[in-house]
């Protein structure tokens, strides 16, 4: 056994060097690596801050399993999401394209899909890496969160469903976990809807009383019919305000297996064991490979559903408990790979969809993540804290263990990387913004292929970065949100910072930072302090114009028409509105 372990270590040490020599000798050598067709396991956390993980500098949060991935693999320290909220970020991840290209953005403040029963979603003409890998013979699965739409015209057409975007198997939430699933005080939409319904009730009640008084005093010549209808409408609105919370729980917080609802609403104490059981089952079924499995964790989004044996165990309250439980889940998945003999043949990737939420706060208790030294957080399209995320790749014997890369990379890069590893071709009929990471991961390339990266907030360009190779990393902010209260580092009192309107500042000239020396974006450079200020601004503005010329008009999936609740699109496992079922046994 010791002899085998020693051989494995030697193999790991000389294989990357051998690959580097091959790549330097022949341009086509990278295709030799792709010919190995590894299994691909993608792990994505929800709302995790880059500062929440031990290997990224947190010494009070216990994340040994994620840290082990970094020790055995490659860690990216300038890994950037294409959006600072989940729906657009995940669309970009799956397609390798800025979400503005697919229309997975809004222009009116609807930052993510608001309802499962809305018609918006990832368009059917978009190509995901899952679709390409499926065509190349991979078994493809998605377990966990989707949040990229479900139906278009009926409750069963499933036009946006994962199975229509290249996945053979789906188990999880078609929507997203949210505070409203547990009727938390931190609410995404329930509290706002209740307030609106109560306001309308008061207006109609006042109208009804006014009509009654006018009718009885003969001051208003009106029949009793308007009085009755206004009174009935007021009663209906009052009842709706009481039941809207239950509607949300049943409408959005449920589990599906492929096209079938299995649990509506969710029983939270079962969710984590069910997810782990499903992952293990998929790996065992497909261990002869090749497979692509995307594990899209429900952790660490509020309401931070955590099993009892993790509650109160961390130094960071319920949020820390949830992070440490997710790390334990990662460990369980890695154990399954080991047991099934899949570790050495599987490329593993770990990331978060965007930065941690600073506004998830009640009193002095923080229920969102920590973004380390980086300014801002979830929902902020330009500031680093909203878009700089963990990025870890492990492929034993191929990728050098312990390698750290500070070059700019993007979640969109996963698309061309896994497509080429699977022997596929990146689509030529559309712009793909991601770049193949394999040369950078192997060490055969010293620089990222990203010279510029654009940072959007909805459809509005807030910032851009310029990688001036061998010199510096410039960051230009055109628009920034106004933090509240003044002097704070977030938009407290709101769910997220806005992208437009009175609560943002348009900078003229734009703000300039040197991320190489100032990754926290605290020192604004000016023409007086930076000799090349105007040259940098001119070059970045030119890059922005060139980028914008590649954009084509597309319907915005998250705008009002595609992002309102439509009862006829609502998935329901019984006759609507009796949406209740539990169709699968407890996990083993």
UniProtKB/TrEMBL annotation:
<keyword id="KW-0106">Calcium</keyword>
<feature type="transmembrane region" description="Helical">
    <location>
        <begin position="199"/>
        <end position="220"/>
    </location>
</feature>
<keyword id="KW-0479">Metal-binding</keyword>
<comment type="similarity">
    <text>Belongs to the sulfatase family.</text>
</comment>
<keyword id="KW-0378">Hydrolase</keyword>
<dbReference type="InterPro" id="IPR024607">
    <property type="entry name" value="Sulfatase_CS"/>
</dbReference>
<dbReference type="Pfam" id="PF14707">
    <property type="entry name" value="Sulfatase_C"/>
</dbReference>
<dbReference type="GO" id="GO:0016787">
    <property type="term" value="F:hydrolase activity"/>
</dbReference>
<dbReference type="GO" id="GO:0005794">
    <property type="term" value="C:Golgi apparatus"/>
</dbReference>
<keyword id="KW-0732">Signal</keyword>
<dbReference type="InterPro" id="IPR000917">
    <property type="entry name" value="Sulfatase_N"/>
</dbReference>
<dbReference type="GO" id="GO:0046872">
    <property type="term" value="F:metal ion binding"/>
</dbReference>
<dbReference type="Pfam" id="PF00884">
    <property type="entry name" value="Sulfatase"/>
</dbReference>
<feature type="transmembrane region" description="Helical">
    <location>
        <begin position="227"/>
        <end position="249"/>
    </location>
</feature>
<protein>
    <submittedName>
        <fullName>Arylsulfatase L</fullName>
    </submittedName>
</protein>
<dbReference type="GO" id="GO:0005788">
    <property type="term" value="C:endoplasmic reticulum lumen"/>
</dbReference>
<feature type="domain" description="Sulfatase N-terminal">
    <location>
        <begin position="38"/>
        <end position="423"/>
    </location>
</feature>
<dbReference type="InterPro" id="IPR050738">
    <property type="entry name" value="Sulfatase"/>
</dbReference>
<keyword id="KW-0812">Transmembrane</keyword>
<feature type="signal peptide">
    <location>
        <begin position="1"/>
        <end position="31"/>
    </location>
</feature>
<keyword id="KW-1133">Transmembrane helix</keyword>
<dbReference type="InterPro" id="IPR017850">
    <property type="entry name" value="Alkaline_phosphatase_core_sf"/>
</dbReference>
<keyword id="KW-0472">Membrane</keyword>
């Amino acid at each position: 056994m010791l002899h085998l372990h020693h051989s494995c270590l030697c193999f790991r040490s000389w294989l990357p060097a051998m690959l580097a020599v091959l790549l330097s000798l022949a341009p086509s050598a990278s295709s030799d690596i792709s010919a190995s067709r590894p299994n691909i396991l993608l792990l994505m956390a929800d709302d995790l801050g880059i500062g929440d993980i031990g290997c990224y500098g947190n010494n009070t949060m216990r994340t040994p399993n994620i840290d082990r991935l970094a020790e055995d693999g490659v860690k990216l320290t300038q890994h950037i999401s294409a959006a600072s909220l989940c729906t657009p970020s995940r669309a970009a991840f799956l397609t390798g394209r800025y979400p503005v290209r697919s229309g997975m953005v809004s222009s009116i403040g609807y930052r993510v899909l608001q309802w499962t029963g809305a018609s918006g979603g990832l368009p059917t003409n978009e190509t995901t890496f899952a679709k390409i890998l499926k065509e190349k013979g991979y078994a493809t699965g998605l377990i966990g969160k989707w949040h990229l739409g479900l139906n278009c015209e009926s409750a069963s057409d499933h036009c946006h469903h994962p199975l229509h975007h290249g996945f053979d198997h789906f188990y999880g939430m078609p929507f997203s976990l949210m505070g409203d699933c547990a009727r938390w005080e931190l609410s995404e939409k329930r509290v706002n809807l209740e307030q609106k319904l109560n306001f309308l009730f008061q207006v109609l009640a006042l109208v009804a009383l006014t009509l009654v008084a006018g009718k009885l005093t003969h001051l208003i010549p009106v029949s009793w019919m308007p009085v009755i209808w206004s009174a009935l409408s007021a009663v209906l609105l009052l009842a709706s305000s009481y039941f809207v919370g239950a509607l949300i729980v049943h409408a959005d917080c449920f589990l599906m297996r492929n096209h079938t609802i299995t649990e509506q609403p969710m029983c939270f104490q079962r969710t984590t064991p069910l997810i782990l059981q499903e992952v293990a089952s998929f790996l065992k079924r497909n261990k002869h490979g090749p497979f692509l499995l995307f594990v899209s964790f429900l952790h660490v989004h509020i309401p931070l559903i955590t099993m009892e044996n993790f509650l109160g165990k961390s130094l960071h309250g319920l949020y820390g408990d949830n992070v440490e439980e997710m790390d334990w889940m990662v460990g369980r998945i890695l154990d399954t790979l080991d047991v099934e003999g899949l570790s050495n043949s599987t490329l593993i990737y770990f990331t978060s969809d965007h930065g941690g939420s600073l506004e998830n706060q009640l009193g002095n208790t923080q229920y969102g993540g920590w973004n380390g030294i980086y300014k801002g957080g979830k929902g902020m399209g330009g500031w680093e804290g909203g878009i700089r995320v963990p990025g870890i790749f492990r492929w034993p014997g191929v990728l050098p263990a312990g390698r750290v890369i500070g070059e700019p990379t993007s979640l969109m890069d996963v698309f061309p990387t896994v497509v080429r590893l699977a022997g596929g071709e990146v689509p030529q009929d559309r712009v793909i913004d991601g770049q193949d990471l394999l040369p950078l991961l192997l060490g055969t390339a010293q620089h990222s292929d990203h010279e510029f990266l654009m940072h959007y907030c909805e459809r509005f360009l807030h910032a851009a970065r310029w990688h001036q190779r061998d010199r510096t990393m410039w960051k230009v902010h055109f628009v920034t949100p106004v933090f509240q209260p003044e002097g704070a580092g977030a938009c407290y009192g709101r769910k997220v910072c806005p992208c437009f309107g009175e609560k943002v500042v348009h900078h003229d000239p734009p703000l300039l930072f040197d991320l190489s020396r100032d990754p926290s974006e605290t020192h604004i450079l000016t023409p007086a302090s930076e000799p090349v200020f105007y040259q940098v601004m001119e070059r970045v503005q030119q890059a922005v114009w060139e980028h914008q010329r590649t954009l084509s008009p597309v319907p915005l999936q998250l705008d009002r028409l595609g992002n309102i609740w439509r009862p006829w699109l609502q998935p329901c496992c019984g006759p609507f509105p009796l949406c209740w079922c539990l169709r699968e046994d407890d996990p083993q």
